[in-house]
Amino acid sequence: NTDDTQPRHFLDVDDLSEAELFAVLDRADEYKRAVENGEDHADLSGQTLGMLFQKASTRTRVSFETGMTQLGGHAIFLGEDDIQLGRGEPLKDTSRALSRYVDAVMARVFKHENVEVLAEYSSVPIVNGLTDDAHPCQTLADLQTIREHEGDLEDVSAAWIGDGNNVAQSFALGCALTGVDLTIATPEGYEVDDAVLERARDLGGDPTTTTDPIEAATDADVIYTDVWISMGQEDERDVRMNDFEGFQVSADLLEHAPDASVMHCLPAHRGEEITDDVVEGDQSIVFDQAENRLHAQKALLSWLLE
Ligand code: CP
Ligand code: NVA
């Protein structure tokens, strides 16, 4: 936060440097301990977060709102159809108006360009709560979770199995920044964007891509998947169900990675990208991931606003 006139935004993971990302992850661990020990940590006393949603959410909404309460601040839920945005007020006007009231805005939108517009017109930090292209807050929680379970991020090998979607793309950037070795297995036509792979390489990463889920999973420390049909892709259901055949994270796949932790950002669609027994099984750490959304986002907000 060197330039006092320009707020820092968090539109994707690589808006943070490696050192800043580790600082946020360390702070996330501290907040987790503070919650566990019942210690007061009202670091955002009197501050308000606006939460703009164009898509549904359970974890993002509740973790941000609860996080602001725990930090001594306040959060306001702004569903698109509850505010004038839903009746055609331009996003740039919404952003400038919100900036005059709140201390930060978290936004979940369809087009990634929309968080860029919010940021362009905002005088307060904009935090990406998921776009069609990126889900960086999820990555913060994911990295915190992997570090908890593996002890360190270096020497960890992770396999992404499924759609090269928003969650995959931010995860690829997070792995690149923190030294996690990543293999991404997707069906043809569902790859992570080349531009994202290029950004990951620029950050020092070297993600491997394949169309073979077994190759990616074999001996991995972490296996990560997400839905095959993301919000906004409901019309593609039939085609996608067909195209993703063979990419299910199941007990059969885990035979190739008996020691792997299984991750999923949730919500999970059991019987599609993952089986019920894997979600419920010993290798699953999906609810640790969900919990860490709270701690990681509190860390991000207090870091952005200090
Ligand atoms: N993982 C995640 O962002 O969940 P929600 O859609 O419930 O917020
Ligand atoms: N890829 C999913 C993630 C939901 C948290 C979606 O965009 O719907």
TrEMBL record:
Please state the Enzyme Commission number of this protein: 2.1.3.3
Q: Where in the cell is it found?
A: Cytoplasm
Q: Which GO-annotated molecular functions does the record name? A: amino acid binding; ornithine carbamoyltransferase activity
Any single Pfam family the record assigns to this protein: OTCace
Sequence positions that bind carbamoyl phosphate: 57-60, 84, 108, 135-138, 265-266, 293
Record keyword Cytoplasm present: yes
**First-level EC class:** transferase
Q: Where is the Aspartate/ornithine carbamoyltransferase Asp/Orn-binding domain?
A: 155-304
Q: Which residues form the Aspartate/ornithine carbamoyltransferase carbamoyl-P binding domain?
A: 8-148
Q: Which GO terms describe its cellular component?
A: cytoplasm
Q: Which GO terms describe its biological process?
A: citrulline biosynthetic process; L-arginine biosynthetic process via ornithine
Its UniProt entry gives the catalysed reaction(s) as:
carbamoyl phosphate + L-ornithine = L-citrulline + phosphate + H(+)
Q: What is its main location?
A: cytoplasm
Would I find Protein biosynthesis among this entry's keywords?
A: no
Q: Which domain of life is it from?
A: Archaea
The entry's keywords: Cytoplasm, Transferase
**Annotated residues for binding of L-ornithine:** 166, 226, 230-231
Q: Which HAMAP family match?
A: OTCase
User: What family does the entry list?
Assistant: Belongs to the aspartate/ornithine carbamoyltransferase superfamily. OTCase family.
Protein name as it appears in the record:
Ornithine carbamoyltransferase
